[in-house]
Design brief:
α1 packs parallel to α12. With 399 residues, this protein is α/β, with parallel strands linked by helices.
């Protein structure tokens, strides 16, 4: 049963409707001024303030780097969330996600633990492997070599969780030798202690799920990591196999779960007075979202030929690329009147009874004013139709 409504914002700048979509400005030709890129931080603050007032449970952000195109402009979630905690009262602030291969795991552990204390426990931990070669490889970690990326990520998460959950710990693996075997103040160094450790243990930790590999899912279940799916890759239509594979991973570990338990799902949501108006308003931004994520191989249905055509505004509209209508039909996008969005969520709730957390998001480039208006409409016209109201999340996290 749906109990919590969250919102996910990846840090994009406002984009003019005339420049987005399959016939709009090519991705690699986008470039914004420093002032425009920094405005994404103010945009995040405005969204967080509104979500806090409306009673949403968690505001999730994304860590990304080196994007003059204006798509994802927040390089440090922990700094961002520390600031947001000072301008909001009770909303939780989620990391979706700290890209672990771009960190030393102990620096990430220390920074999270500090922010955890300074915000009174309002920041939610999240880890991810990354999907931009420009980001991960620039920081000196593998991404093109997916096997090495997976190996590194898993060892880093093991170090991170040891640091959180064990008073004194050591780790001697393929990538990290912690602590190093050195003398220290008259004794041989054998263990380390994270100072400070987080307030509440074990730490609530989330990870994105885009594929259904047994190794990846089994690793998450083993370490008690919760899963999040949807959002920017919702157009790929992978929801059903992800939910089924997630339950199967728990079964392999001998854990009985309801379908969708410990899994959060993000939707792009757009509400208007009529279905036709909602589709018309959303269409170019939906297409821009595909343009951004498609070449990163996060929309798995696209062929090499389609990816090549998508880069050309003259060819893209006739390339058979994903449409907002098809995404609505598949249930990946909730777009229409408030009643239609409510019906879509009710049907989803019935199909996946274990899912209790839904994220309300928006495609790349949607202007700040539109996002704020959409969140207001959702809170007023959709959320009250559910048996557990958004406002109950306020009570849960004020204790």
């Amino acid at each position: 049963m749906i109990r919590f409504f969250d919102s996910l914002f990846t840090g994009h700048v406002d984009m003019d409707r005339e420049t987005v979509g399959y016939a709009g400005t090519p991705v690699n030709e986008r470039s914004y001024s420093d002032e425009d890129l920094a405005a994404a931080l103010e945009k995040a603050e405005d969204i967080a303030r509104l979500l806090d007032r409306l009673g949403f449970d968690t505001f999730w952000g994304a860590e990304h780097h080196f994007q003059p195109e204006g798509y994802e402009c927040v390089p440090n979630l922990l700094i961002m969330n520390l600031h947001l905690a000072h301008v909001t009262e009770r909303i939780r602030l989620g990391c979706a996600f700290n890209i672990t291969p771009m960190w030393h795991p102990l620096r990430l552990a220390e920074d999270y633990a500090m922010v955890d204390h300074l915000t009174g426990g309002r920041v939610v931990m999240g880890v991810g492997r990354g999907y931009h070669t420009r980001e991960v490889e620039t920081f000196g970690s593998p991404l093109l070599d997916q096997a090495s990326n997976r190996d590194l990520f898993e060892e880093q998460v093991e170090v991170l969780l040891k640091a959180f959950n064990e008073r004194s710990f050591s780790h001697h693996g393929k990538y990290y030798d912690l602590p190093p075997r050195v003398p220290y103040r008259g004794y041989q160094l054998e263990t380390l202690t994270l100072v400070p450790r987080p307030r509440a243990l074990p730490v609530e930790c989330w990870q994105p799920v885009q594929g259904v590999t047994e190794r990846g899912l089994d690793f998450m279940v083993k370490h008690g990591i919760k899963a999040m799916t949807g959002g920017g890759v919702a157009a790929s239509g992978t929801m059903e196999p992800v939910v089924r594979a997630w339950q199967a991973a728990h079964e392999r570990a001998g854990i009985e779960t309801e379908l969708g338990e410990n899994l959060a799902v993000n939707f792009h949501v757009h509400i208007a007075d009529t279905a036709e108006q909602a589709i018309d308003e959303l269409r170019p931004y939906f297409e821009e979202n595909v343009k951004m994520f498609g070449p990163l191989r996060l929309i798995r249905t696209l062929s090499d030929e389609q990816l090549e055509q998508m880069a050309d505004p003259a060819l893209a509209p006739a390339a058979g690329l994903p449409t907002v209508e098809a995404s609505i039909e598949s249930g990946s996008t909730l777009c229409g009147t408030a009643e239609q969005v409510t019906e879509g969520l009710k049907a989803f709730e019935e199909r996946y009874p274990g899912i209790d957390r839904i994220g309300i998001g928006h495609p790349i480039g949607l202007p700040r004013a539109v996002i704020l208006e959409q969140l207001q409409r959702f809170a007023e016209e959709v959320a009250p139709e559910f048996s557990t109201m958004v406002s109950e999340g306020v009570v849960a996290h004020q204790v």
